[in-house]
Amino acid sequence: MEPLILAIDDEEHMRKLLQRALRPQARVLTAATGREGLQVAEKEQPALVLLDMRLPDMGGLEVLRAIKERLPRVPVIMITAYGSIETAIEAMKAGATDYLTKPFDVEELRLTVSRNLQINDLAQQVQLLREELRSRHPEGIVGESEPVRELRRMVEQVANTPATVLLTGESGTGKEVVARAIHQQSARRERPLVVVNCAALPEQLLASELFGHEKGAFTGALARKAGKFEVADGGTIFLDEIAEMPPHMQAKLLRVLQDRSFERVGGTETLRVDVRVIAATNRDLNQAIGEGSFREDLYYRLNVIRLHMIPLRQRKADIPLLVRYFLNKYDLRRRIREISPAALEVMNSYHWPGNVRELENAIERAVIVAQDGVILPEHLPFTAAPGEHTRGDGFIIAFPEKGLSLDEVERQLIQEALRRSNGNRTVAARLLGITRSALLYRMQKHEMA
Fold first, then answer.
1. pLDDT tens, 313-354?
2. What is the pLDDT of residue 403?
3. Residue 255: other Cβ atoms inside 10 A
4. Distance between terminal CA atoms of the chain?
């Protein structure tokens, strides 16, 4: 079926030229004014619009913005006069996908239209694939075990309420995935989802990152900067590792939760925002309250709705589905034909201390190292024997009789990741399943920097 193109131009000879030139590859409707063009666009839903910058009744940019508001996925090619490149750039910023400068030849016109139609077709195919994947596993919440089914039900119930949500559970269980699912299923999905890792930022920068700062507020503050809460206005902010937030910042966050207002660092103007807050932690907040490191009043503000993520070892029935999901994500060339039963058995018998994140990393690695289209046990980055705690290809954490503190275990893991990555901190962070900034923070904490 030939695509439908709408050409909006006030010059009759140009409208006829566009119709003749594009007739072999498309059906072309025309309009002589901006208002007529908008009416035709809304009624006919064209696959592409050719829009002249100068029209008798409306400015080209005004028409462009109206089209993008009503038909956001339809590509618009602007037609500009010679010498008005600055205007064309302005149009691109407003949502145009391409532009043609008069005078142009017919071949240039056809190539530009063909390219934009192909790009639009690909974008639609990607969108359909995403929707298909989402219908199978909404927002990446993969699994059919009863805990996962219940989690999906809760996400659906919670999404369209304004309530603050607290996500708890071990590292790697998918708390950020659930936060994204809540956001995407809510009425806020067209607004930003802003992610902040409270453990990844130095204490002195956290206030500026969350609330922004005024010019001259501190050394290096050369201009005003909007904070994450300001950027997330109308949307959702996800505060990961909330238990690592310093006490004085907890007091500031409490105020935002209470009345949705704050001041930038170094500022006096009170800013008000409409933001949904989702927080996450892998620590026991009740214990942190008892130790005095977390405010009890903040806990009650955060714990309006609590969703607990169970570890992967308690839902091993979901492993085959998760494996298939991550294969679709990383095996883009579809080289992997199958996963051997022995490899699946190894995965089912492994205890997964790093949970779903560790499984994802294992599949990503297996896709790279499996050369014959079949994932075998030796392609997996662990060979766990009973009583051993492994991470990576054979690395064993030895437990002395007196035991190990969590800090010592973390230090050993960081050392091993740095050894395997030859000191490359970005690669080491990937091996550990954390961000580079989070790795740098932990290295400073253990005096390894």
1. 999 999 999 999 999 888 887 888 889 998 999 999 999 999
2. 56
3. 12
4. 62
Q: Which residues make Cβ contacts (< 8 Å) with residue 444, sequence separation at least 6? A: none
Instruction: Report angle CA 154, 438, 383 to the nearest 5 degrees.
Output: 80
Q: What is the pLDDT of residue 301?
A: 96
**pLDDT beyond 90 at 389:** no
Residue 77 tokens read as 């090619």
Give SS3 for 83. coil
DSSP 179-214: HHHHHHTSTTTTS-EEEEETTSS-HHHHHHHHH-B-
Buried b or exposed e, range 215-254, using 16+ CB within 10 angstroms: eebeeebeeebebbbbebbebbbbbbbbbbbeeebbebbb
Domain range spanning residue 338?
312-391
Q: Is the Cβ–Cβ distance between 272 and 230 less than 8 Å?
A: no
Q: Residue 74, SS3? A: coil
Q: Could you please report the per-residue DSSP string of 372-413?
A: SSEE-GGGSS--PPTT--B-SSS-B----TT---HHHHHHHH
Max mean pLDDT among 58-62, 67-71, 93-97, 235-239 falls in 235-239
| Structural domain ending residue among the three candidates 349, 366, 391 | 391
Residue 138 lies in a domain: no
CATH code for position 267: 3.40.50.300
Closest CA to 270 of 252, 285, 286: 252
Any domain includes 137: no
